[in-house]
């Protein structure tokens, strides 16, 4: 079957999808069972981008072969080719893939004003699934020769330049281009690679940009201005151009990708770009606000959709293995240890953190090690979300009409659009969240780090299937949606948490489920409890916050809502928002111990001596 | 010198080693296939484009960008000296002319009519690649570099800081489990690769730097000591460019941990011989570990006893536990249960039983051991 031939959705019965990560290639098989698409089998194999294989398709075929073995369905023929189309118990109809192997897509972006066009360019690059190595702007507080020095040090896959609104000044954006061209940033893929430059700035500046980069060594691509006016951000064409260049240049230079591209039925997408796509599809489809997080060994990605606006951030050095030491450095050890309720030796912990950094594939064996790792994860997630909130803002530089009523408000554009009270769904993925031994731990990691307010559903990506479904949504949206709802997400339950603060022991909120038929009660400030509500169950919640507390309807106002259960259930959290732990270490430890007991977070006591045998 | 990540580190008494020595950009080779080179022989060199210094002449002369070409005293391609006038405005009635001086020496590369910006390109920067490993040039990569081959004693460390250096091996610790203290480092070790045993203290490294030691190799280091040495808390293990006056290589990990006996014995056996070491570590996709290379030459080291690079876990295979609660302990595989087991953390994982040197048998996740050769 030739690549990317038109697909008739109705004739699709078997779909194969792979995600080629830096270390592992994960494959899933989706089959139509009784008229509904379900994810049925999975396989994985080491990614083979590096020597001695230096061919990504080897890992892909290995991962698919594992599915072949467990499913009993013949997928690969004797020549090592994927059998298409499906017939009987052989082959598949669609094969698609995402990729983040070899460090993913690495970009440098530039704009004139850091908070305006440069911020928009960064949003476009991140939304396309890139890692942004640096953002150059005329006002980035570096002197021109320092900017040039920085550009020379970087080895990006491509550069995105924006700047100027259409019809506005062309000089500033040309100046930025004039810094980049002579700096001659060296591409990652060696001397034969012409560095792609995407220009998405003031349309009037195009002739000058053409002149600046026309001298050779660059492959200039021009697309629509991503900030045609200060009031409008138009990221679509720039994002599409990034994807095109990613396929044409970056992927084509990665080992074995030419073959991989020729066998997929849809363009290969950068993994985070695909995750963003599926989250947007779901948020749009259900009419909700959603946040997704993927915490890996090196980086943490946060995706959000609020009122239809999508944002993605990559916290490049917040991760649980390669970057764990950086998390400890940024968060500081006291912040991490506030989540720990048992005695730990700080010097020993610091050495353990470094040992995890240099041997990233090890896993916690003792409960003590798990408790510490989850404490680090809370801080990594908290910091990543903070960065996301700072980035996901309304457009800066927009002139706003102000009324007399606005006179005393300080808002001038650039406020975060992330509103935890409006958040409906929080989705977790990544090793430390997905592989936590108990779902309760995953739920509490999310609650402690993200501090959802009001009523929020919590879920986790069962086997990190969101990238696969993101690409699938571009060729077969129905299959993507059905698998997402049925197999991708595991619902943990719903968190109910009023905003506000009070004195410990004073009333916070009262609640009843199905008019009391499934329970009712009252929580004092500082308490937390879990009410059983099964995976496929819903119930009518009525919750009345005490004075000064808000569950979304306003301070003290009752909220009635259908809530969804899950593997954990309904988590009633009266610890207040913002969540603050006592400063005094002993009081903090008591508070954390109380939460751990109430939620039954670590049912096993730490066996004596465990974790101290170093 | 990058190596694919394997669960075990390579430690070999004698192995054929190929050093790929390549330039970052195309250049000229200084050696030919078959040549015998020393560690400090320059094998290839090139010139990188010089630094760029931008200067907005239009702003400085309060002129329109479009007028700048007429105001320039120097043209594109001209050589300029630092502080030499390169542009001058017309002044008022020919008076009060102001000048613009070159902020750096180099060549005037571009003059922009659109922005009034000029670019001065500095002198080309020479880039040289040394052989690093003494040996024979076995392959020439035109315009790029060479491959040098030699039979070496090879020891990969787990982590290092500092770049390439070379010198004779000098033993500071006689035993593999002996801590490397400042008092064990003396002036005779100047320029040497000093080998410790267990943990090296920050005082010992400070002393080594004082006497001009080229590199320190030891079993472990404390995180706090590393922070002392670097002056900052290392966040991500991508190292090799630190300028701390010497190279440090750790063979086992962080904390109080002894160097593997075999590694120590190998280094001891090569005491006095010249070694090439590189502390550069990169723990990301395409893992790179620090390395110690000691050409075998006429040293009469017996031929390869096999390497410890990744292999199959079998009963009796020597392993090192690389995570708490048994971190650093050494033993042999006692059994390999098929079914996953529930760990103390509550996670389910495939495990193995390790018979420790003390005789105790412990259960450990398979992900938490690495192969070693005793």
Q: What are the main properties of this structure?
A:
heterodimer, A: 614 residues, Rossmann fold, 3 domains, eight-stranded mixed sheet, B: 374 residues, mainly beta, OB fold (Dihydrolipoamide Acetyltransferase, E2P), five-stranded antiparallel sheet, 5 helices, 28 strands, disordered N terminus
Quick overview of this protein structure:
The complex is a heterodimer of chains A (614) and B (374). Helices cover 33% and strands 23% of the residues of chain A.
Can you tell me about this structure?
- The complex is a heterodimer of chains A (614) and B (374).
- Chain A has helices at residues 56-71, 117-127, 144-153, 171-183, 206-213, 236-253, 257-263, 271-286, 324-331, 333-337, 346-358, 367-391, 431-434, 439-450, 466-475, 477-488, 585-599; strands spanning 14-20, 24-33, 36-46, 94-99, 105-111, 130-137, 158-161, 195-199, 218-222, 269-270, 290-295, 300-306, 309-315, 425-429, 454-461, 489-497, 507-513, 520-524, 528-531, 538-545, 559-564, 569-573.
- Chain A has 614 residues and is an alpha/beta fold.
- Chain A folds into three domains: 9-101, ATPase, nucleotide binding domain (Nucleotidyltransferase, domain 5), CATH 3.30.420; 104-263, Rossmann fold; 290-396 and 414-599, no CATH class.
- In chain A, strand 17 and strand 18 form a beta hairpin.
- In chain A, helix 2 crosses helix 6, helix 9 (324-331) packs across helix 12 (367-391) and helix 12 packs parallel to helix 14 (439-450).
- Chain A is globular and about 70 Å long.
- The termini of chain A are far apart.
- With 374 residues, chain B is mainly beta.
- Chain B has three domains: 11-46 and 135-295; 52-121, Beta Barrel (OB fold (Dihydrolipoamide Acetyltransferase, E2P)), CATH 2.40.50; 318-371.
- Chain B has helices at 57-60, 68-71, 202-211, 223-230, 261-269; strands spanning 11-22, 28-29, 36-37, 42-48, 52-56, 79-80, 85-88, 99-101, 106-111, 117-121, 125-130, 135-141, 145-156, 159-161, 164-171, 193-195, 199-200, 215-221, 247-254, 274-278, 291-295, 318-321, 330-335, 341-342, 348-349, 351-356, 361-365, 369-371.
- In chain B, the strands form six sheets. In chain B, strands 1, 3, 12, 13, 14, 15, 16, 17, 18, 19, 20 and 21 form a twelve-stranded mixed beta sheet that branches.
- Chains A and B meet through helix 3, helix 4, helix 9, helix 11 and helix 12 of A and strand 5, strand 10, helix 4 and strand 25 of B.
């Amino acid at each position: 079957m030739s690549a990317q031939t038109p697909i008739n959705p109705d004739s699709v019965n078997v779909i194969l999808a792979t995600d080629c990560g830096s270390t592992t290639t994960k494959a899933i098989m989706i089959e139509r069972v009784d008229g509904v698409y379900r994810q049925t089998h999975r396989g994985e194999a080491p990614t083979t981008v590096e020597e001695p294989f230096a061919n990504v398709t080897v890992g892909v075929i290995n991962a698919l072969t594992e599915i072949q073995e467990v499913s009993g369905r013949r997928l690969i023929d004797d020549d090592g080719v994927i059998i298409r189309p499906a017939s009987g118990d052989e082959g598949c109809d669609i094969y698609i893939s995402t990729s983040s192997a070899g460090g993913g897509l690495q970009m440098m972006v530039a704009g004139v004003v850091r908070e305006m066009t440069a911020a928009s360019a960064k949003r476009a690059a991140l939304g396309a699934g890139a890692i942004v190595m640096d953002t150059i702007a005329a006002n980035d507080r570096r002197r021109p020769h320092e900017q040039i020095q920085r550009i020379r040090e970087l080895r990006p896959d491509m550069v995105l330049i924006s700047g100027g609104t259409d019809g506005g000044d062309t000089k500033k954006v040309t100046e930025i281009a004039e810094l980049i061209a002579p700096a001659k940033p060296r591409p990652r893929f060696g001397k034969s690679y012409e560095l792609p430059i995407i220009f998405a700035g003031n349309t009037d500046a195009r002739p000058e940009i053409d002149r600046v980069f026309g001298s050779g060594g660059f492959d200039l691509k021009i697309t629509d201005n991503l900030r045609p006016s200060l009031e409008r951000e138009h990221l679509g064409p720039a994002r599409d151009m990034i994807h095109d260049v990613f396929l044409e240049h970056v992927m084509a230079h990665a080992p074995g990708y030419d073959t991989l591209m020729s066998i997929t039925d849809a363009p290969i997408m950068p993994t985070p770009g695909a995750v963003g796509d599926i989250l947007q599809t779901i948020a749009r489809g259900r009419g909700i606000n959603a946040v997704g997080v993927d915490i890996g060994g090196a980086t943490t990605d946060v995706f959000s959709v609020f009122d239809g606006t999508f944002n993605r951030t990559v916290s490049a050095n917040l991760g649980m293995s390669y970057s764990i030491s950086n998390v400890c450095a940024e968060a500081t050890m006291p912040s991490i240890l506030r989540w720990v309720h048992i005695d730990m030796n700080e010097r020993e912990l610091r050495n353990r953190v470094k040992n995890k950094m240099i041997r990233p594939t090890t896993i916690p064996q003792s409960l003590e090690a798990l408790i510490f790792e989850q404490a680090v994860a809370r801080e990594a997630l908290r910091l990543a979300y903070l960065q996301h909130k700072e980035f996901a803002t309304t457009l800066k530089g927009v002139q706003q009409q102000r009324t007399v009523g606005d006179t005393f408000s300080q808002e001038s554009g650039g406020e975060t659009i992330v509103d935890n009270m409006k958040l409906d769904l929080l989705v977790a993925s990544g090793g430390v969240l997905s592989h936590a031994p108990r779902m309760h731990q995953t739920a509490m990691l999310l609650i402690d780090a993200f501090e959802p307010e009001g009523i929020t559903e919590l879920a986790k990506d069962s086997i990190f299937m969101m990238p696969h479904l993101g690409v699938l949504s571009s060729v077969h949206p129905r299959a993507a949606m059905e698998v997402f709802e049925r197999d991708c997400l595991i619902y943990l339950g719903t968190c109910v948490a009023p905003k506000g603060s009070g004195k410990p022991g004073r009333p916070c909120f009262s609640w009843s489920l199905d008019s009391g038929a499934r329970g009712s009660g009252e929580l004092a400030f500082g308490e937390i409890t879990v009410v059983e509500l099964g995976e496929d169950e819903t119930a009518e919640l009525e919750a009345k916050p005490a004075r000064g507390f808000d569950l979304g309807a306003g301070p003290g106002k009752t909220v009635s809502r259908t809530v969804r259960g899950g593997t954990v259930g309904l988590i009633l959290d009266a610890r207040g928002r913002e969540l603050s732990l006592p400063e005094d270490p002993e009081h903090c430890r008591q508070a954390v111990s109380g939460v751990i007991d109430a939620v039954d977070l670590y049912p096993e006591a730490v066996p004596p001596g465990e974790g101290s045998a170093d | 010198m990058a190596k694919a990540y394997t669960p075990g580190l390579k430690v070999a008494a004698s192995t054929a080693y190929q050093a790929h020595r390549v330039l970052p950009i195309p250049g000229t080779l200084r050696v030919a296939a078959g040549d015998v080179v020393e560690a400090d022989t320059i094998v290839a060199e090139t010139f990188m484009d010089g630094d760029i210094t931008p200067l907005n002449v239009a702003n400085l002369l309060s002129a329109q960008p479009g007028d700048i070409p007429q105001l320039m005293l120097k043209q594109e391609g001209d050589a300029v000296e630092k502080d030499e006038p390169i542009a001058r405005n017309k002044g008022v009635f020919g008076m009060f002319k102001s000048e613009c001086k070159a902020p750096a020496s180099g060549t005037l590369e571009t003059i922009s009519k659109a922005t009034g910006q000029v670019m001065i390109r500095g002198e080309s920067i020479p880039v040289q690649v040394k052989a690093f490993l003494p040996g024979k040039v076995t392959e020439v990569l035109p315009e790029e570099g060479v491959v040098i081959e030699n039979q070496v004693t090879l020891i990969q460390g787990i982590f290092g800081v500092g770049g390439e250096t070379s010198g004779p091996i000098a033993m500071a610790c006689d035993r593999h489990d002996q801590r490397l203290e400042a008092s064990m480092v003396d002036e005779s070790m100047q320029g040497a690769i000093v080998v410790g045993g267990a943990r090296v203290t920050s005082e010992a490294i400070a002393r080594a730097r004082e006497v001009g030691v080229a590199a320190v190799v030891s079993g472990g280091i404390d995180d706090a000591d590393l922070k002392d040495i670097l002056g900052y808390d290392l966040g991500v293990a991508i190292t090799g460019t630190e300028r701390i006056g010497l190279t440090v290589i750790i063979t086992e990990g962080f904390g109080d941990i002894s160097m593997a006996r075999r590694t120590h014995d190998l280094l001891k056996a090569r005491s006095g011989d010249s070694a090439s070491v590189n502390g550069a570590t990169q723990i990301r996709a395409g893992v790179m570990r620090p390395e110690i290379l000691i050409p075998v030459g006429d040293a009469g080291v017996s031929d390869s006893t096999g390497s410890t690079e990744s292999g199959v876990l079998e009963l009796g295979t020597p392993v090192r536990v690389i995570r708490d609660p048994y971190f650093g302990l050494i033993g042999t595989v006692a059994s390999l249960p098929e079914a996953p087991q529930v760990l103390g953390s509550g996670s389910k994982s495939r495990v193995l039983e390790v018979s420790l040197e003390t005789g105790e048998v412990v259960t450990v996740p398979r992900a938490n051991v690495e192969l070693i050769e005793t």
